[in-house]
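F.,

This is the one I mentioned.
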C-alpha cells in the first residue's frame, strides 16, 4: 500500500453522495460524518460539487477524507482539485480524462469491471481501480480479479452493505464505495438526517468488526 493511499485505507468506506442541492449535500455529509463514516465522495451529480467539497474541508479539515466523484471531464477534475478534493473518482477509465486527473496530483480512482479495463486503468497509472458496478459479481468476482491482479488496489462500489462489508475486505478490497445503502437518496430527499446517521453508524460498526 502506497503512502498516497493511507487516508483512503484508513477511511475504509467512502460514502458516494448524490444530492439535489448543495445545502442537502452538506446536511447529508454532516449526518454521515456524525455516524462515524468520514470518507465522503461528493459526486458531480450534486449541483456545485466543488463548493460543497470546499465547505466540508473548511468545516472538518483532516478529520474527514473529502473527494469528488462522477468526474467525467478534465474541467471537473481541475475544479475539484482547486476546491481541495483529496481524491478524484470517475465511473470509467478514459485515457485523456485519466491523464488530466493524474495531472492534479490527487489520488485518482477510475472505474473498471472487466480484466481488460483493469489493465487499462493500471497501465495509465491510477492509484485505485474502482470496480463498478461491483453488485454484478459480488465479493466472489472481486476475489477472482485478485488472481491476475494480486497487488492492484481495488475498490468495489455498488452492492456494498454493512452485512457484506467483511466479505468485500476478505476478497481484497483496499476500501469500498457505498451509495444507496449509506447515502440513501430517499432519505436525502426527505431530509431524514437521523436515518443517514443511523446508516453510517451501521457501516461504522461493521468496519470496526472487520478490523477487529
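My design for it:
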Amino acid at each position: 500500500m502506497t503512502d498516497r493511499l493511507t487516508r483512503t485505507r484508513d477511511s475504509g468506506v467512502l460514502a458516494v453522495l448524490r444530492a439535489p442541492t448543495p445545502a442537502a449535500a452538506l446536511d447529508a455529509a454532516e449526518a454521515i460524518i456524525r455516524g462515524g463514516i468520514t470518507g465522503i465522495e461528493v459526486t458531480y451529480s450534486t449541483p456545485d460539487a466543488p463548493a460543497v467539497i470546499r465547505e466540508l474541508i473548511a468545516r472538518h479539515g483532516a478529520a474527514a477524507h473529502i473527494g469528488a466523484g462522477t468526474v467525467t471531464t478534465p474541467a471537473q477534475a481541475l475544479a475539484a482539485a482547486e476546491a481541495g478534493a483529496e481524491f478524484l473518482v470517475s465511473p470509467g477509465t478514459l485515457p485523456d480524462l485519466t491523464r488530466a486527473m493524474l495531472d492534479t496530483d490527487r489520488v485518482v480512482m477510475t472505474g473498471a469491471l472487466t480484466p481488460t479495463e483493469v489493465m487499462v486503468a493500471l497501465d495509465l497509472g491510477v492509484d485505485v481501480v474502482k470496480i463498478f458496478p461491483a453488485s454484478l459479481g459480488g465479493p466472489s468476482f472481486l476475489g477472482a480479479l485478485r488472481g491476475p491482479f494480486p497487488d492492484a488496489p481495488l475498490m468495489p462500489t455498488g452492492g456494498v452493505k454493512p452485512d457484506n462489508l467483511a466479505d468485500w475486505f476478505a476478497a481484497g478490497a483496499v476500501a469500498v464505495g457505498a451509495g444507496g445503502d449509506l447515502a440513501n437518496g430517499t432519505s436525502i430527499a426527505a431530509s431524514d438526517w437521523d436515518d443517514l446517521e443511523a446508516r453510517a453508524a451501521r457501516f461504522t460498526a461493521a468496519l470496526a468488526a472487520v478490523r477487529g
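The CA atoms of residues 68 and 176 lie 15 Å apart.

Talk soon.
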